[in-house]
Amino acid sequence: ERRSGKVGECQTTVNISRSVAADRRYIAWLSLVALAYNYNIWFCTVRLAFPYHSPAANMYWVACDVISDAVNLIDICVWQPRLQFVRGGDIIHDPALTKAHYRKSPRFKVRTDIFSILPFDLLCLNFEFSSIYRLNRIVRVESFFEFSDRLENVMAKAYIWRVARTTGYLLFMLHLNACAYFVASEHQGIATTTWVYDGNGTAYLRCYYFAVRSLINIGGLPEPTTTFEITFQMSNFFIGVFVFSSLIGQVGVT
């Protein structure tokens, strides 16, 4: 009886270690999926706002787009249909059941996964090359949240990831504001007033610097002169107050 008890304990330990190892392998894969998602939400927006498309650069953009799409396609076709799940206290390993479970999941029923990989990029063959045809990749946000939740569950000090994630949210909000500021400057005319981007230096870096000073309400910004500029700047101040109050609340929770 003692021997059988020891054997049972060993088998339990082995099963637990295998499940943890498998979970860590899946988290490692999800990190690639999350990286592909972040590539899409960061670079699709910056390419849409800034003039970063040129015949020399487009081939590199296409290569990066293909790699990120390949990661998402492998995740949807290979990993997700084989993901084990728990039913009635038992872990289901059967590939047919795991595939059926994935097809019944909200991600598949709502078609977010399918819609996110539709190749609207092919429209570039008949129209101008633009990242607007890749905006459907943004709807696959659940892949990032799944990675975030699983990573937080296996980390001994999960607060480190929470702080890093909150910082990432802040940087992305500043990124969106930098893109909006450049579009607003182009709408008004580059270097036409003291408020808009003057056309000197690196466009993205200068606009990001403006976004940091504007949303954080540091001050010392050039005064807006037109109605459009005043409206844009007032919206910046209101959004900055709302965003930073929300982020401070999240930091307090962590």
Automatic annotation (TrEMBL):
Protein's UniProt keywords contain Membrane: yes
GO MF, one annotated term: intracellularly cAMP-activated cation channel activity
Transmembrane segments: 26-50
UniProt KW Transmembrane keyword: yes
Assigned keywords, A-Z: Membrane, Transmembrane, Transmembrane helix
Entry superkingdom: Eukaryota
GO terms under cellular component: intracellular cyclic nucleotide activated cation channel complex; photoreceptor outer segment; plasma membrane
PANTHER family with a match to the protein in the record: CYCLIC NUCLEOTIDE-GATED CATION CHANNEL BETA-3 (PTHR45638:SF8), CYCLIC NUCLEOTIDE-GATED CATION CHANNEL SUBUNIT A (PTHR45638)
Protein's name according to its UniProt entry: Cyclic nucleotide-gated cation channel beta-3
Species whose genome carries this gene: Takifugu flavidus
